[in-house]
Structures are given as C-alpha cells and as structure tokens.
Design goal:
Layout: E1 3-5, H1 15-19, E2 30-32, H2 40-44, H3 51-63, H4 69-81, E3 91-95, E4 98-102, H5 112-126, E5 133-138, H6 142-150, E6 157-164, H7 170-179, E7 184-190, H8 193-205, E8 213-216, H9 222-240, E9 246-251, H10 256-266, E10 271-278, H11 283-290, E11 293-294, H12 314-321, H13 326-339, E12 341-342, H14 346-355, E13 356-360, H15 363-377, H16 383-395, E14 403-407, H17 415-420, H18 426-430, E15 439-442, H19 446-454
Parallel strand pairs: 4-14, 5-6, 5-8, 6-7, 7-15, 9-10, 9-14, 10-13
Antiparallel strand pairs: 1-2, 3-4, 11-12
Helix pairs in contact: 3-4, 3-9, 4-5, 5-6, 5-9, 6-7, 9-10, 15-16
C-alpha cells in the first residue's frame, strides 16, 4: 500500500517510511492512497477473535506486506500483553443500550497506550541498529507518558516531549517526570498545548539534525490513527456481530479517534452515528455546527486533556471531504496557519454534518453526570468520559442501536476530583514541587527548540 500527503506534492511512500516519519516533506500528513474494504459477512466472521487477532485483521492491509504475517501477529500479541484486562478493551453497560468502552487498561491507564505500544514495536522493527531517532511530540500529560513508557527499552531512541507550563495537572506532570529516564527530555513551553503542537509541527517541517530521524509520537504519525481503528470494530463485534449498527460518542481529546471512526465506517463497519463531545473548549463543536473552526484562548476545565483547540488530524478529514484534492487542502491549511481560522465549502460541510453530530458540555453538567453515573449505574468515570456519556445520551439518533462512549482515561487519573466533586483548583497547580532538569521555551521559540535538538 502506498501513502500520499494530504497536501499533494510529496512523493508516495511505503509503510516503513510512514512509521519512521514526522510529517510529509510538503508539510502535510500521510494517508493511505486507498482503504481496504470489508463486507458484513467478512466482518461478522471476526466475532470470535481475541483482540490481537482482530487487530491483525484490521491493521495488516495497511502494512502492505512489509512485515511478514507471523512477525506482525507476534508484534500485536506483544502490544496487548501489557494491558491488565483479559478483554484488553472491555465494554461496560451504563444504561439502556448505553455502553462505555474502557480504553485505559494499558501501562499508563490512557487510550494513548494503544498507539504508543504499537509505534514502539514498529519503530524497533524498521529502525536499523546504526540509526538514531528522536520521538518528538506535544503532550498535556498522557500522550508523552505513554511514549516514554513504550520506548523505555529503545537504546537508540530519545523521547522529547513539549508540555505547556500551566496546562498539565500536577499529578500527571509528576508522573511524566517520574517516568522519564536519561534519554528522555521534557521541554516546558510558556504557552498553551496548541503552542506546543505548533512548535513541534514547525520543527518537523525543518528538522535541524541531519543524522537523526524525527518521528512524531502524536497522531500526526499515521500509526496514531491506525491503532485506534481497531476500537470501533471491537465494539461493534461485541454488541452486534459487526452487522447491527452502532453509534459512538467520542470525547474530543484529539481528532485521531474521531477520524479513525470515520475510516472504520468507510472500511465497511456498520456505524449509524458519531457524536463529537467537547467541553467548553468547543472548537470542534463550532466547526461541525457552524463551519467555523478557529484557534482561540483555551479555558481550564474539569477535563484538562481536552483543553486545547488545534486538531492536526482534522486535515486528514478535510482531505477526504475534498475527494483527495491535495492542492485545495494545501491552500486551506496555509490560510489557516496564517489566520487561525478555517471554513470549508458548503458541500463539504454538509457532508461533514451528515457524518457527525456534536455537543459542548459545561463543567456543571459534567459534575452532575459524574454523580448520576455513580448513583444510577454504580460506575466511576473520569470527567472526559462523563462528557462523552452525557453527549451520547442526549444526542443519540436511535434508541434501538447501542451507543458507545470511548473512556480514554482511567477514573484514578481524576481521583481527587471524583472524591471531592469539585472544580479544578488553581491551588493544586501552585503546589507542585518538581526537581527535573528540563528545558524552558517561549511559545514561539522555534530557533531555541532547533538548537536544543542539535545538542542531543
């Protein structure tokens, strides 16, 4: 299978090149030039498969024969061995035909483990012993922690994680610091998570170290999407053998899972609804409902992993809406990078509206939903999952079809909040005391980041 850039001018590459990449040479994101498609009979035949074998069926067409079948099967089995639930991603019922897909049973208790564990094994497979690589990305805690954990044993790989000074909860930052080793580097940015992502994108487009491979640990790397397509096949097979239509409510903590759901539907999975649930930082909600996407100042909420407004994978979705027209995507994204604002054509927006619903959930609603789920379903969830569960309950199109909310974080990551059911306190952020030799950057200091990387 060949991979092309969303911006149209980079040459097609193979799966190996995509794995060992940050971005395409023209600044776009790699996407498969065509998608595998399965009929309902083929999908339903996977109902009895364990998670790793299902992952093989879904992922192997994208690999294009570059990893022989026994090796890929072993790789996927190894990926999920470190998850602490026999089902890997169990479903929990929270109401009539309402379910939560628990994606937090990996080593760092976040859905990011699925992509990070797969990426680490793919990079190890394709990277020669003489090569050096930097796994670089932006994090508000969970993505960077998953990358550090996954690449812990890779001697020729360094993890560089940029995080916003005031955008990471103290307990998650402490976990990030505690997990890092001598070949990992944390870079504190005096700005937002969006600023961190922008810095990473700029440095990947003009990589300053010739003899070191830059690889993104964010879902700008296609592996970040690929690992998550499996979620939707797994859920649908558990709830209806892959034949019964299923709806999904996806908290907007990244666009990767939303885009992965869209890809699963295009591959033949019976998905009847996708609800994008956001908190008060509602950039995706405004895009879907008003065709008005823009970056803006973010506010702090009960679900800090969703406190940003820059969604890289939206570019891949726009490429699909414009029938793979790279030149149009290039024009749209260049205008967005200049102005911070984006609107698409009316035809494309109406198509997006047919595919997605969305709902913005306020913190007061999240607190109420946390209490409701605990009292009425005996279930403790984190605020991010509560956001998705409420949006799913209020905006599902069918009571007959199951609605599944993606639970991307373990409740224990919000244990203090769940105990107190209180708003996020600024005092907690002030109380952190860390002893880590980290780099500090201002939000626009691309030259400083380049100098640091050359010194690794």
């Amino acid at each position: 299978m060949d991979y092309v850039s969303t911006r149209g001018s980079a040459r097609p590459v193979n799966f190996r090149s995509v794995v060992l990449s940050g971005m395409a040479s023209d600044g776009g994101l790699y996407v498969p030039d065509s998608l595998p498609r399965f009929d309902s009979e083929q999908i339903s035949s996977w109902s009895w498969l364990p998670f790793d074998e299902l992952a093989y069926c879904v992922i192997s067409p994208f690999v294009g024969g570059e990893i022989v079948s026994p090796v890929l099967r072993k790789m996927l089995k190894d990926c999920y061995r470190c998850f602490d639930h026999r089902a890997v991603a169990p479903l929990q019922q929270i109401g009539p035909n309402e379910w939560v897909l628990q994606l937090h049973h990996g080593p760092t208790q976040a859905s990011k483990d699925f992509a990070a564990q797969l990426q680490a094994r793919l990079v190890a497979h394709f990277l020669s012993p003489d090569d050096r690589a930097v796994i670089i990305g932006a994090t508000n805690g969970d993505t960077g922690l998953a990358a550090i954990e996954a690449f812990r044993e890779a001697s020729n790989v360094s993890v560089v994680a940029l995080y916003p000074r005031d955008g990471v909860p103290a307990d998650r930052l402490s976990s990030l610091v505690a997990s890092s080793s001598h070949h990992d580097q944390l870079i504190e940015v005096d700005g937002s998570f969006d600023d961190c992502q922008t810095l990473v994108s700029k440095v990947l487009r003009a990589w300053p170290v010739a003899d070191v491979l830059p690889i993104s640990f964010n879902s700008t790397n296609w592996v970040g999407v690929l690992a998550q397509i499996v979620f939707f096949f797994h859920s649908a097979l558990q709830l209806g053998g892959g034949v019964r239509p299923v709806g999904f409510s996806i908290p907007g903590a990244s666009f990767a899972e939303i885009y992965a759901c869209f890809i699963a539907q295009k591959m033949g999975l019976a998905i009847n609804q996708v609800i994008v649930s956001t908190n008060t930082n509602d950039a995706l909600h405004r895009f879907i409902n008003q065709n008005n996407y823009s970056t803006r100042e973010v506010s702090r909420s009960l679900s800090p992993s969703m406190d940003f407004s820059l969604f890289s994978n939206l570019e891949r979705f726009i490429w699909e809406l414009y029938d793979h027209d790279g030149s149009t995507v290039q024009h749209l994204m260049a205008a967005f990078e200049d102005s911070g604002k984006l609107s698409i054509g009316n035809k494309q927006w109406l198509e997006a509206r047919m595919l997605f619903d969305s709902y913005s959930v306020a913190d007061a609603q999240v607190r109420e939903e946390l209490i409701t789920l605990y009292k009425e379903a005996g279930t403790a969830v984190d605020p991010q999952t509560a956001t998705g569960a409420l949006a799913g309950r209020l905006h599902r199109r069918s009571m007959v079809c199951p609605i599944v909310t993606l639970a991307q974080l373990a409740p224990s990551k919000s244990s203090q909040l769940l105990a107190e059911l209180n708003m996020w306190s600024g005092e907690l952020a002030k109380s952190r005391t860390l002893s880590v030799d980290h780099v500090e950057l201002s939000k626009g200091d691309i030259d400083g980041l380049s100098r640091f990387l050359r010194g690794l």
